[in-house]
């Protein structure tokens, strides 16, 4: 995403932001989105407490679908498009998209996992006696690998890029390094989502 | 790019996170039935040790941007403590109790500490 920013504009320690790099004002964590996250979490707590099949299925499928689609779309569609944008456009797009991802991704992941576990317990699909228990455990492993990549590499890179872009003199080399990490991590989780789709459709088909 | 010599916090943090996620997967694969806790406790202990070692190694680093680390880390800690709390709530809702609950809670505690350390370090190392 930010490679061209680096390759065409100066190095660490140079005075001032890179030429042509306008940095729109933005919040790293968009405060306007926090009430929405709070409402979703309250609904999640209520749905788990009520423990009813349809509402649990809705929360798990809606959030899980959002998670899968965002990962695939970001990794394989938006990424290449962003690579072809002009440098100011890339910076502007990054400062508008990535703060939203800081709120959206942890929320959809938490809802998917919490509602999914409750649904699994409700339906008995997490019991070792369940015919497809091996597939259920496989889904845990896939989610676990994605979690390690997303939480250990992708999320820190996301926050660090935004923090760097907030500085009066962002360091293009730092942004390049972090964006490379972000793009590779997003691609890896996108690929893992294909495995999630295979497992979940197998579990739904029985 | 001028870089200070820093301990391999990201690699060690990823190792700690992998171990703790493995512990939670192991327990989830058994719940709601009886969980043999030995492997989970071993994974938890090694994960916690790796995390503690990472933070200690970082604490010995001179010139590290601790102010930025704490500034970012405390908000990340708040967010991930909340996420860990939601996961804990689901297990409590399904009557997880006793030693299993203790181990699970400790796993979630290590998880809620590891991710903020990784985020805060990634930001502070470039400050």
Write the layout of secondary structure elements.
The complex is a heterodimer of chains A (206) and B (127).
Chain A: H1 3-8, H2 34-50, H3 53-83, H4 87-123, H5 133-166, H6 172-205
Helix pairs in contact in A: 2-4, 3-4, 3-6, 4-5, 5-6
Chain B: H1 9-30, H2 38-59, H3 66-93, H4 98-124
Helix pairs in contact in B: 1-2, 1-4, 2-4, 3-4
Question: With helices defined by DSSP (H or I, 4 residues minimum), what is the helix count of chain A?
Answer: 6
- Tell me the number of strands of chain B: 0
Poorly predicted tracts of residues of chain B = none
Q: What is the terminal separation of chain B in angstroms?
A: 12 Å
Pattern of helices and strands of chain B = HHHH
Radius of gyration of chain A, whole Å: 20 Å
Quick one: how many beta strands of chain A?
0
**Number of separate helices of chain B:** 4
Question: Helix/strand/pairing class of chain A, anyone?
Answer: mainly alpha
How many separate domains make up the residues of chain A?
Answer: 1
End-to-end Cα distance of chain A: 41 Å
Mean pLDDT across residues of chain A: 83
Q: What characterizes the major β-sheet of chain B?
A: none
Assembly state of the chains shown: heterodimer
Helix content of chain B: over 70%
**C-alpha geometry of chain A:** elongated
Q: Approximately what portion of the residues of chain A adopt beta-strand conformation?
A: under 5%
Low-confidence stretches of chain A: 1-17
Classify the beta-strand content of chain B into a percent band: under 5%
Main beta-sheet strand count, sense and barrel state of chain A = none
Structure report:
- The complex is a heterodimer of chains A (206) and B (127).
- Chain A has 206 residues and is mainly α.
- Chain A has one domain (25-205).
- Chain A is built from six helices and no strands.
- In chain A, helix 2 runs parallel beside helix 4 (87-123), helix 3 (53-83) packs antiparallel against helix 4 and helix 3 runs antiparallel to helix 6.
- The longest helix of chain A is centred in the middle third of the chain and has 37 residues, at 87-123.
- The N and C termini of chain A lie far apart (41 Å).
- The longest helix of chain B is centred in the middle third of the chain and has 28 residues, at 66-93.
- Chain B is an all-alpha fold.
- The relative contact order of chain B is 0.21.
- In chain B, 78% of the residues lie in helices and 0% in strands.
- Chain B has helices spanning 9-30, 38-59, 66-93, 98-124.
- The radius of gyration of chain B is 16 Å and the shape is elongated.
- The two termini of chain B are 12 Å apart.
- Chain B has one domain.
- At the A-B interface, helix 2, helix 4, helix 5 and helix 6 of A face helix 1, helix 3 and helix 4 of B.
